[in-house]
Design brief:
Number of strands: 12
Strand order of the largest sheet: 6-9-10-11
Helix content: 10-25%
Distance between the termini: 34 Å
Strand content: 25-35%
Largest sheet: 4 strands, antiparallel
Radius of gyration: 18 Å
């Protein structure tokens, strides 16, 4: 993993500024404090002191900016003093791959629901035991388990047409 760059942090903060400006209202003190707090503590941008210098980034464009590089943005220990943000390069079968969605197993028993949008089907993926904290991502034609250290995706279900929205549902 490598630390998030200035381009990505500018895009995130610019989108936050645009959200604060939505509806034609001036940016409040609370908005400014929130954006600067995210810059300083989440994104480690201690150099930013004036949010007026941030470019306008529409929230929809932010997703494209962050997903276009076959990377996943990872926040470790959110809200704590040792919080960090990294980009994890994603690879599947030796090549860079873009993903649509990632879910994390929250219990050892449950199912992953995945919508195969163009296949017009919702699938329930089950296993005998999930490892709590394990990550699963929708690739262009599969659902794969994500190695959170290396970024390597290993297929667990293949043959999907266009997997998108996913959710992990735990059960006893």
């Amino acid at each position: 993993m490598r630390e998030i760059g200035r381009r990505e942090s500018d895009a995130i903060l610019g989108a936050m500024r645009q959200v604060a400006l939505a509806g034609g209202h001036a940016i409040s003190h609370a908005d400014t404090a929130s954006i600067l707090g995210a810059a300083h503590y989440l994104l480690r941008r201690r150099d930013l002191s004036d949010i007026g210098t941030l470019g306008a980034v529409e929230p929809g464009d932010l997703v494209a900016a962050l997903k276009a590089d076959a990377e996943l943005i990872v926040v470790h220990h959110p809200g704590y003093t040792d919080q960090s943000v990294y980009r994890l390069g994603l690879r599947q079968k030796g090549a860079a791959v873009q993903i649509d969605d990632t879910v994390f197993a929250t219990a050892s028993h449950g199912v992953i629901l995945v919508s195969d949008r163009d296949g017009e089907t919702v699938y329930a993926i089950s296993r005998n035991i999930f490892s709590p904290g394990a990550a699963y991502s929708a690739t262009p034609t599969s659902v794969a388990e994500l190695n959170q250290d290396t970024g390597v995706l290993t297929d667990i279900v293949t043959g999907l047409v266009s997997p998108h929205g996913m959710a992990f549902i735990s059960h006893p």
